[in-house]
Fold this sequence. Notes:
96 residues; three-stranded antiparallel beta sheet
Amino acid sequence: MDLLEKQLKALADKNRLTLLACMKNGEVCVCEFVEVLGISQPAVSQQLKKLKDAGIILERKEGTWKYYRIADQLSPVVEAVINELKTNDGGNTCSC
């Protein structure tokens, strides 16, 4: 599958867009995403895996927790989508 196609498929989900909006403010622990989305930790992990496999986010492990942030190098299309997402500063309900 073409990388851009994989990235666009990863972006085509409301929960994953919410996760990315939270990460616009910086690195976020997986435990915070559970509260934001109101779904189980395994379900959050599945959503994060799709974003990670598409090269949109990066993962860092510290102790038993995993932290996620938006990748430094993204295609212009993915950057444009992320730039349109509103964070808490923009009045969104995201609590990150």
